[in-house]
Specification:
This protein is an alpha/beta fold. It is built from eight helices and eight strands. The chain is 39% helix and 18% strand. The radius of gyration is 17 Å and the shape is globular. The structure holds pyridoxal-5'-phosphate.
Length: 236
């Protein structure tokens, strides 16, 4: 193993231990929480090293960067589940969709409609999470919590979108307590939509928590944490 692989493996082990501890404190297990390694800050070689040490859920937030890594990783790409986590413009969708396992950032009805059409063209149902603007930051994408209950019928009509759950980000300037409150609100919204939406039973996932707040996210029920900077400490 190279020193890069060893350092990366140590970082991953440290994060996974913290995930397991946070899960245990919430009477959950580490298996309930999927670690998505966000590679947007690093070169393809480091993404490749992650796969080589067994981390196969990778996240990218920009289409061009995803395409670049897909090209660079080549055949290895078959063992990767790419999670798209950023704002996706519809004109980039066609080239992006074939590569992604899940889209966490379904942030508008127009995008969701386009994903449904794109999935039909690929003859594949695309797992999508609905992005919710839980912090109220004006610069953030996503649905307002209050507009979601009324959208259940429309979303139920999509034949090639699998509604996996909800995704949210805490406010940039907030404290851990603020983050925890925002994540709890997302979980409560998910529970409500589960009961009210015609296809609410599909909403199993809560994608919330990043390097600075993944432990409080797990305390509030996160099933996916999206971690970038903490994984690459000492390597960038
Ligand atoms: C960059 C990014 C992350 C990871 O952020 P870190 O703070 O580096 O862990 C998670 N989610 C989204 C949507 C991102 O854009």
């Amino acid at each position: 193993m190279s020193t890069v692989h060893a350092q990366l493996a140590a970082n991953v082990a440290r994060i996974r231990a913290r995930i397991a501890e946070a899960a245990a404190r919430a009477d959950r297990t580490a298996n309930d929480v999927r670690l998505i390694a966000v590679t947007k800050y690093v070169e393809p070689q480091l993404a490749q090293a992650l796969v080589e040490i067994g981390e196969c859920d990778l996240g990218e937030s920009r289409p061009q960067e995803l395409w670049r890594k897909v090209d660079a990783l080549g055949p290895l790409d078959a063992s990767i589940r790419w999670h798209f986590i950023g704002h996706l413009q519809r004109n980039k969708l066609e080239r992006t969709l074939p590569h992604v396992a899940w889209i966490h950032s379904g942030d508008s009805l127009r995008l969701l409609t386009a994903i449904d059409e794109g999935g039909r063209a690929l003859q594949r149902r695309i797992p999508v999470l609905i992005e919710v603007n839980i912090s109220g930051d004006a610069t953030k994408h996503g649905f307002q919590p209050a507009e979601l209950p009324a959208l259940g019928e429309t979303l139920a009509s999509f034949t090639h979108v699998e509604l996996r759950g909800l995704m949210g980000m805490s406010s940039l300037e907030g404290t851990q307590d603020d983050a925890r409150r925002e994540f709890a609100a997302l979980r409560e919204l998910r529970d409500r939509l589960r009961n009210e939406w015609p296809r609410g039973d599909e909403l199993r996932e809560l994608s919330m928590g990043m390097s600075d707040d993944f432990e409080v996210a797990i305390a509030e029920g996160a099933t996916c944490v999206r971690i970038g900077s903490a994984l690459f400490e000492g390597l960038r």
